[in-house]
Amino acid sequence: MTDLISGRRESPAASAARAAAEAAARAAGVDIRPLDSVGELEAVRRLYERIWRTGENNPPVTADLLRAMWKAGSYVSGAFDRGEMVGACFGFFSAPARATLHSHIAGVLARTQGRNVGFALKLHQRAWAMPRGVGEVAWTYDPLIRRNAYFNITKLAADPAEYLPNFYGPLDDDINRSDDTDRVLVRWRLESPEVEAACAGRPRPAEVTAARMGVALGVSPSGGPQTGRADAPTVLVGVPADIETMRENDPARAAEWREALREVLGGLLAEGARVRGFDRAGWYIVDRQERP
Question: Which InterPro entries match (predicted)?
Answer without folding.
Answer: Acyl_CoA_acyltransferase, GNAT_N_AcTrfase_prd
